[in-house]
Design goal:
- By secondary structure, the chain is α/β, with parallel strands linked by helices.
- The protein has one domain (about 20-55, about 65-125): Rossmann fold.
- The chain has helices at about 20-35, 70-75, 80-95, 110-115; strands spanning about 40-45, 100, 125.
- Strands 1-2-3 form a three-stranded parallel beta sheet, with helices on one face.
- Helix 4 (about 110-115) links the parallel strand 2 and strand 3.
- The longest helix is centred in the N-terminal third of the chain and has 16 residues, at about 20-35.
- The protein starts with about 20 loop residues before the first helix and ends with a strand.
């Protein structure tokens, strides 16, 4: 056994991507371009507000606001989220493509609105189940 670990917020078969690693972000952009070049009109980006994590990946606690997703304060609407959404927005704008991002477990409506402000070129729309 290798005694190696990886972060998975959802299923253990679904490891989180390390968006801090530039080649990972470039691979995501390449995948987007692949589908856009073939006529795709846009994307639904599930759990997109979970891509940026607190530095050092600190542990969550059972007292978290969303106990079913322990640690949300460390991975929901993280410190680099808007930077990375803007990177994706450049590609979406180049193709005049649509995006809708799922942003559950988010309490700060101002932060959600920032994600869809047209002048910021991040997301086209947001799905937010708690509203």
């Amino acid at each position: 056994m290798r005694q190696e670990y990886y972060l998975h917020i959802f299923l253990k078969e679904q490891p989180d991507l390390n968006w801090e690693h530039p080649p990972v972000r470039e691979a995501v952009k390449d995948i987007m371009r692949f589908w856009l070049d073939r006529g795709c009109d846009g994307f639904r980006l599930d759990a997109i507000n979970f891509i940026s994590k607190s530095p050092g990946l600190p542990d969550g606690s059972p007292e978290d606001e969303y106990p079913q997703y322990m640690g949300t304060k460390h991975y929901c609407m993280g410190p680099r989220l808007h930077e990375w959404l803007a990177e994706l927005g450049v590609i979406l704008d180049q193709y005049d493509a649509f995006s809708v991002g799922e942003m559950g477990a988010t309490k700060d409506m101002a932060d959600i609105l920032k994600s869809v402000a047209r002048h910021r070129h991040e997301l086209g729309m947001v799905i937010h189940f708690e509203l």
